[in-house]
Specification:
mainly alpha; 4 helices
Length: 48
């Protein structure tokens, strides 16, 4: 699993600024935060 997480974060870095990568990774790594977050807020993190 660590390899998959590293690959995910590596590919995020090719599309988003470091601050956004950090926020996306934090949300994805914290299940409770992800479940509590409204869908539109999560999707807004992915808008380029």
């Amino acid at each position: 699993m660590p390899l998959l997480v590293a690959k995910f974060e590596q590919h995020l870095a090719t599309r988003f600024p470091a601050s956004r990568c950090k926020k996306i990774a934090e949300v994805c790594n914290e299940q409770a935060a992800l479940e509590a977050m409204p869908v539109h807020t999560f999707m807004n993190l992915w808008v380029i």
